[in-house]
């Protein structure tokens, strides 16, 4: 018999895209970081595809100044389409950019006061439902995708979920780190604490939070009453940490590859690996890498 979940389904996703993208300046002076392409798709497209694969219908973009290109990417480009059609060019290359009317909502974060604050800006649209969060600069490649894996776990345990992955111990101080509790299965672990950017010696594990969340709407109230944390910003990790003990909280170890495309080397790594995985590019890129490897010695 098929298992039927009685939990409220995850229908909405928040994409906080109001950050300044300072690590990619000057590229991100006039173009949002989320529009930087890995090969021929902007980062935001990968995240939206992952959301749709997980059955999410409503996309909520938390935007800021200079981010209009993200919304335009998902709009109909009438002139472009008419010109392409007139020239007999197929339009299916644009299919992924089409959104059902009414399913894309934007809210503004006027001042980038941190990830937690960006999420809180979406509170009226999220309403009283559990929702997903995607950080588009963390590119998650898996089959099924990361959010689909998380929704499957959510159907099992409900509550709040974060995706995690293991990193070498000397890297933990750059990330939010979980304190693991009871191990439900090989990929699902209870979370008993969270720390943002701990010192290596204070880190409760080497499992880092990796850019995908399913949260209950109560997080909005927690964020509402919260002051600034690390870096003088309103941190999502702090709000989640305060919810632990009041609501179920689990971590899903993502089976797949994660690329930190907010960093330059992560961006290059993603570009090369995704190119190698593409039929239309693999031969050329493999030859290129071999040549470079020989030159480096
Ligand atoms: P980052 O920490 O990567 O910051 O934000 P950033 O501004 O995008 O990039 P750098 O560090 O200056 O290069 C993580 C995510 O949270 C969003 C960002 O857009 C990104 O998706 N964010 C961050 C906001 O929407 N608002 C904020 O105030 C901060």
Structure description:
The chain has about 300 residues and is α/β, with parallel strands linked by helices. It is about 30% helix and about 25% strand. It folds into two domains: about 10-260, Spore Coat Polysaccharide Biosynthesis Protein SpsA, Chain A, CATH 3.90.550.10; about 265-295, no CATH class. It has a nine-stranded mixed beta sheet. The longest helix is centred in the C-terminal third of the chain and has 15 residues, at about 280-295. The structure holds uridine 5'-triphosphate (UTP). Uridine 5'-triphosphate binds near residues 17, 118 and 136.
Describe the structure concisely:
The protein has 297 residues and is α/β, with parallel strands linked by helices. It is 31% helix and 24% strand. The chain has helices at residues 43-53, 68-73, 78-86, 115-120, 123-126, 146-157, 218-224, 236-243, 264-276, 282-296; strands spanning 12-16, 37-38, 41-42, 58-63, 104-108, 131-134, 138-141, 160-166, 176-183, 188-196, 207-215, 249-253, 257-260.
